[in-house]
C-alpha cells in the first residue's frame, strides 16, 4: 500500500464497457483538439480507457538484441514479449482518474484512491470501472454519460503512478476515447518524464454547447493536488490509500 493525495469517502458501483469503432483519430501537439459535438458524439456513454505496456528497452529490446542475434540466430524467430502482465516482468501500476466540475458549480474527483468511483446516471455522470495493476489489454476505464453533457462544465482526465513503481518513461501508456458513435480518439503519453508521478492527459470542456476534447499531456512531479493547482480546481486534498487486491 502507498499513500497519495486523496479525498475521503466515495461510492462503489458496476458498469460494463461498450463496443468500439475500427478507425482512430490521434491528438498530437500539432493537432491537439477535436469537437465531439461536430463528430455527432455527444450522446450515450463515452468510454475513456487507459492501457500500457513496458518499453522493449527495459527487457532487452531492439537496442540490445544485435549481438545476441549473432550468437543465437534462432532468437530472431522467437516472439518478443512486451506486455507487462505479471509482476515478475516489471512492476508497473498506473491509475486513471478524473477531476470534474459541473454546470451547477459542484466539483470533485473520480479515482480508485479513497474509493471515489463516481456514478454514471447521477452527478457527476462519470464512473470508474476496473483497476488493472499490470497493464493488461483491458486496462482501466472511465465512463462519461454524455446524455448529461449540458450538466458537465469541464473534466480533466489524469494518470498517476501508484506506489514505488517505475516512472512514465518505463511504459508506453495510451489513453483512448470511445464515443458511442464515430471514431475512437487516441492520446499517447509518449513524452519522456523519468521522475514525474502524474500526468494531465486531456480535458473535456463544454464551450458554449460545443464539447471539446483537448490533448494536455502535462507531467508533474507531485500528485492530484499539484494537478488541481495547475488547472485551478480548488479542492481540499489530504492523504489517501488504495486498497490492496488479494
Annotation keywords:
6-stranded antiparallel beta sheet, 246 residues, mainly beta, disordered N terminus, 7-stranded mixed beta sheet, single chain, 2 helices, 38% strand
- How many E strands? 15
The residue ranges in which pLDDT falls below 50 over 5 or more consecutive positions are 1-5, 8-21, 59-70, 73-90, 131-138
| Main sheet: strands, sense, barrel | 7 strands, mixed
Give the strand order, joined by hyphens, for the main sheet: 2-12-11-4-9-8-7
- Helix- and strand-based class? mainly beta
Number of helices in the DSSP assignment? 2
Helix/strand order? EEEEHEEEEEEEEEEHE
The general outline is globular
Based on CA atoms alone, the radius of gyration comes out at 19 Å
Residue share in helix: under 10%
Mean pLDDT: 77
Write the layout of secondary structure elements.
Layout (H helix, E strand, L loop, with lengths): L2 E4 L17 E3 L6 E3 L9 E10 L11 H6 L22 E9 L4 E4 L7 E2 L6 E4 L10 E6 L6 E10 L9 E8 L5 E6 L8 E10 L2 E11 L3 H8 L6 E4 L5
Parallel strand pairs: 2-12
Antiparallel strand pairs: 1-15, 3-14, 4-9, 4-11, 5-6, 5-10, 7-8, 8-9, 10-13, 11-12, 13-14
Amino acid at each position: 500500500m502507498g499513500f497519495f493525495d486523496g479525498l475521503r469517502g466515495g461510492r462503489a458501483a458496476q458498469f460494463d464497457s461498450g463496443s468500439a469503432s475500427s478507425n482512430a483519430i490521434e491528438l498530437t501537439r500539432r493537432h491537439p483538439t477535436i469537437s465531439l459535438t461536430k463528430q455527432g458524439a455527444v450522446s450515450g456513454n463515452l468510454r475513456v480507457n487507459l492501457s500500457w505496456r513496458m518499453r522493449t528497452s527495459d527487457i532487452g529490446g531492439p537496442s540490445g538484441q544485435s549481438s545476441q542475434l549473432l550468437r543465437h540466430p534462432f532468437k530472431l524467430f522467437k516472439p518478443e514479449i512486451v506486455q507487462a502482465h505479471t509482476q515478475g516482468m516489471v512492476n508497473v501500476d498506473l491509475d486513471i482518474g478524473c477531476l470534474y466540475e459541473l454546470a451547477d458549480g459542484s466539483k470533485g474527483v473520480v479515482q480508485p484512491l479513497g474509493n471515489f468511483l463516481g456514478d454514471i446516471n447521477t452527478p457527476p455522470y462519470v464512473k470508474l470501472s476496473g483497476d488493472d495493476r499490470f497493464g493488461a489489454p483491458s486496462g482501466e476505464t472511465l465512463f462519461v454519460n454524455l446524455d448529461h453533457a449540458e450538466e458537465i462544465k469541464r473534466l480533466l482526465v489524469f494518470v498517476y503512478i501508484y506506489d514505488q513503481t517505475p516512472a512514465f518513461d518505463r511504459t508506453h501508456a495510451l489513453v483512448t476515447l470511445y464515443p458511442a458513435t464515430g471514431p475512437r480518439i487516441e492520446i499517447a503519453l509518449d513524452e519522456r518524464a523519468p521522475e514525474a508521478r502524474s500526468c494531465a492527459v486531456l480535458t473535456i470542456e463544454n464551450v458554449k454547447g460545443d464539447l471539446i476534447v483537448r490533448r494536455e499531456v502535462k507531467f508533474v512531479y507531485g500528485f492530484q493536488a499539484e494537478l488541481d493547482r495547475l488547472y485551478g480546481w480548488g479542492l481540499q486534498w489530504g492523504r489517501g490509500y488504495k486498497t490492496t487486491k488479494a
